[in-house]
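step=encode ok
step=design start
structure_in=
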């Protein structure tokens, strides 16, 4: 049987979308909404974006571009039917071409923006419940003030964004020296120059085309020397994801992309010492984050099953004292005593980064063995932060990021 090579997509735009873009000719602002099974929220996001563009950028020609991953619910139909005709704003709803994932969805947005020579590009997640017109202002305005990349700065419930809080924020800060609080936040602003730079890079057939896109965009903007700021967006309220249930795929793609970028930019991050603040712009968009339940028992069970499956692997990867701690946590019967200290966690992350670097093949398989340890760290956070207010939890996360920074020499030594 003849095995054909996988299709390489030279574009993420389908023919019908391309024709609509050509007819449009140009746009000053393109707002992309990557969508997948978002029928309950997509209309709200489109309406808020349209309202924001109309209220704050009335003199600009604007396009809202919904880039869907082939949802079989009514996401696209609802997006098409959402009436924004009272505004002078164009809307295109299309299925992108390419590897299924958020990265391919954004590639289609970027290609549309490049063709239309857009001055400013923004992206907003399609499952947002808390987006307001002010989000649009706060994300796009800095581009007109000379910034190239605008990261979101949310108020989040202390247990929301666990991949950010355990790894992505810490490594972005420790490796690249930028205190970007939400490097995988999902809602970004970009200059035309940066979007062109993204499109020129040969990553669109890799993990970056999936959930790796946000951290790749942030890291690329840092390393390529673009001007970066953060935008106040208040609370991010969306279809929250229980960290114990459906984050494994996302974890694999985000952390895998971070580790791959560490290999690519090794000469850059090894020379970075300490970290610097990144300006936070925009008026505060008022809304408090909503607390939600976290299944601590489920996280610990996932970790214990992981121990049974991967104990031998962990023993070969981790420092002896860290493996002893893991073994002790495995034996721990009392939920309240389940504590995975920061220093041990930092070493675990750095050991995995180094091991990923040294593994010649099937690197992403290695990450499957790390996910139960991430679950253990999140279960520990539930105990450590249970009685803390969100701002106290935030202090804790900053202290944790500092420890990642302080232990960077350890990473360099084992790398």
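sequence_out=
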């Amino acid at each position: 049987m003849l095995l054909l090579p996988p299709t390489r997509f030279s574009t993420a735009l389908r023919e019908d979308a391309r024709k609509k873009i050509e007819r449009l000719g140009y746009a000053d602002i393109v707002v992309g909404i990557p969508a997948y099974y978002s029928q309950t929220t997509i209309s709200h996001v489109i309406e808020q974006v349209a309202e924001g563009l109309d209220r704050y950028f009335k003199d600009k020609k604007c396009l809202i571009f919904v880039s869907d991953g082939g949802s079989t619910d009514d996401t696209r139909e609802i997006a098409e039917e959402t009436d924004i005709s009272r505004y002078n704003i164009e809307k295109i709803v299309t299925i992108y071409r390419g590897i299924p994932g958020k990265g391919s969805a954004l590639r289609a947005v970027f290609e549309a923006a490049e063709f239309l020579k857009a001055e400013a590009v923004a992206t907003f997640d399609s499952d947002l419940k808390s987006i307001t017109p002010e989000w649009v202002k706060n994300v796009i305005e800095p581009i007109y003030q000379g910034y190239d990349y605008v990261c979101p700065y949310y108020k989040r419930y202390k247990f929301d964004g666990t991949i950010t809080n355990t790894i992505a924020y810490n490594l972005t800060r420790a490796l690249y020296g930028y205190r970007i609080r939400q490097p995988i936040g999902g809602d970004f602003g970009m200059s035309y120059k940066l979007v062109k730079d993204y499109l020129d890079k040969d990553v669109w057939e890799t993990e970056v085309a999936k959930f790796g896109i946000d951290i790749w965009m942030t890291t690329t903007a840092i390393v390529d020397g673009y001007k970066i700021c953060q935008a106040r967006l208040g609370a991010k309220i969306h279809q929250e994801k229980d960290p114990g249930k459906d984050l494994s795929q996302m974890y694999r793609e985000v952390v895998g992309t971070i580790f791959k970028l560490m290999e690519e930019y090794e000469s850059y991050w090894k020379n970075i010492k300490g970290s610097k603040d990144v300006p936070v712009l925009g008026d505060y968009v008022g809304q408090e984050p909503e607390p939600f339940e976290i299944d601590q028992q489920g996280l610990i069970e996932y970790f214990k099953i992981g121990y049974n499956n991967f104990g031998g692997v962990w023993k070969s990867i981790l420092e002896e004292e860290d493996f002893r701690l893991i073994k002790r946590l495995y034996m721990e019967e009392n939920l309240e005593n389940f504590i995975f200290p920061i220093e041990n966690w930092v070493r675990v992350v750095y050991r995995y980064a180094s091991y990923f670097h040294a593994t010649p093949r099937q690197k992403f398989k290695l990450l499957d063995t790390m996910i139960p340890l991430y679950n253990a760290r999140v279960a520990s956070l539930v105990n450590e932060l249970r009685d803390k207010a969100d701002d106290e939890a935030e202090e804790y996360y900053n202290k944790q990021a500092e420890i990642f920074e302080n232990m960077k020499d350890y990473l360099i030594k084992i790398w």
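step=design ok
step=annotate ok -> Strands lie at 29-35, 62-68, 89-95, 120-123, 149-155, 178-179, 188-191, 228-235, 276-277, 280-281.
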